[in-house]
Amino acid sequence: MTKTIELKGVQQRFHARGTAGGYLTAVDDASFTLSAEPAQVTSLVGQSGSGKSTIARNVLGLQKPTAGDVLYNGKDIFQLSRAEYDDYRRNVQPVFQDPYAIFNPFYRVDRVLWKAVKKFGLASTREAGLALIEESLRAVKLEPERVLGRYPHQLSGGQRQRVMLARVHMLRPAFIIADEPVSMLDAQVRKLFLDILLDFQRDHGMTTLFITHDLSTVYYLGGDVMVITKGVIVERGPVDTVMHEPSHPYTKLLLDSIPQPDPDQRWTDRIEVDELGEEEKAEAKLASTPETPVI
Ligand SMILES: Nc1ncnc2c1ncn2[C@@H]1O[C@H](COP(=O)(O)OP(=O)(O)OP(=O)(O)O)[C@@H](O)[C@H]1O
Predict the structure, then answer these.
(1) Distance CA 267, CA 182 (A)
(2) How far, in Å, from the CA of 26 to the mean position of ligand 1?
């Protein structure tokens, strides 16, 4: 059976002071399906505060939607049996913007890889485990001898991100949920990271939900795109079609806001953020206690 992740009418509300009704609708009636076969890249693009990370958290089971369903292979992820849950945890892997939050600064980076080997029983001997770790580090263009034995602060942001990709490579999940994974990386390392994701799709059949505010990254990845604004997915389709023939005014606005390298054509347009002020949004976010994702 083809593995699937399906969102059906997902709505996420948060309590927020100073808003109409005392709550904020971060995601409204979101529905889409990700399928493991054929492997695909689907991007979710929208401005800051549009609800992208909330959808990622819903898909990863870190946030239970106020309404609607998140289904894994047709079953509600919040009601999986033990065996189904284990399968889901192995096959739906996150990659976040800042992997620094996931590494424990007191342990060498090896630990995150060895934990995956042990937790998911990937090797029966230490030698086999090490061979697997080294193979996966090489698959993400890292030299094992330059990474193993180091502490997180001794690696660059791009190297830390790729250690997380090495972990994904070891697990071979059906799905990667990548939430702004390249927004802290420079252009060259960003391209390297995106190429690795495309390799994973082509060579290992991994399907990625790629969350970003950056249309040029979406364009590079290809595949399908969903455009989200104010919690609502307003447009979706193949990247080429959406980019060249956008049908929703918001998509047109996003496209118009891409800076032009032509000095005679300066970037002057601003994108208006939604009706909540930035301060209110920041306050609403602060009011909640962020959970540290456990992987
Ligand atoms: N736990 C929470 N409690 C209250 N409000 C929240 C919570 N999480 C998110 N929000 C609010 O929901 C809205 C959507 O936030 P979300 O983080 O999903 O947006 P985003 O598109 O990922 O933005 P960014 O790109 O800046 O991360 C924002 O207005 C945010 O302040």
Answers:
(1) 23
(2) 6
